[in-house]
From TrEMBL:
Family: Belongs to the short-chain dehydrogenases/reductases (SDR) family.
Keywords from the UniProt entry: Coiled coil, Oxidoreductase
Name this polypeptide is given: SDR family oxidoreductase
One Pfam family cited in the UniProt record for this chain: adh_short
GO-annotated molecular function: oxidoreductase activity, acting on the CH-OH group of donors, NAD or NADP as acceptor
InterPro entries: NAD(P)-bd_dom_sf, SDR_fam
Superkingdom per UniProt: Bacteria
Sections of the chain in a coiled coil: 26-53
Amino acid sequence: MIALNTQTILITGASSGIGAACAKAFARENAKLILAARRLEKLEEKAWELNKLYGVETHLLQLDVCDRSSVESAINNLPPEWSEIDILINNAGLSRGLDKLHEGDFQDWEEMIDTNIKGLLYLTRYVVPGMVARGHGHVINIGSIAGHQTYPGGNVYCGTKAAVKAITEGLKQDLLGTPVRVTSVDPGMVETEFSEVRFHGDTERAKKVYEGVTPLTADDVADVIFFCATRPNHVNINEIILMPVDQASATLVNRKL
């Protein structure tokens, strides 16, 4: 298993959900953590918690991954002791709405495309050259079962996650001949803020998504990401699809109501 106490790990969307769970999982191994998210107050709370629990070093970036110039500035202006990123976890992502395509909200589309595709591309473009130059690194993209199977109302979100799948595969091919590893971790139902964000803060509607089901937790997904990151250097886990036992596909769910 690769030791993480000498590694610097950049996690986007680190203020909550899977990103926050990843921060905790890697903090336990005393990795240096660069935590990025739009909500600085949430990041500060997370950093304080991790320092109290594990004494871990953190560097916080208030960052909107959709803003290319902000991403460029954030990466290029990291303090020297934080500038050599060993693992990039492209976690920032979201879904908006469940409208039929011909009734969809343009703003929802823009937000999903800008965050899930362009934001991931921006971070990858600014971080990976350093990995190649140093001959070491690992990019872990958080995809989704939605990138493998579409479902009614999922149209654009599924499209963005299919793009993540294709981008991850393309990146792996482009990095052939370098020691840089590339992984996609693609979960099914995970109970985080995901559905609340999808339904624009409608908590009651969000709760119904998980009724009668034992979904994955953010910690479950972080555990799989941790596993991928700690394999020996010659091992690359290309792709993992994980779902709760109560889910068999994007649309087949066993609800005990």
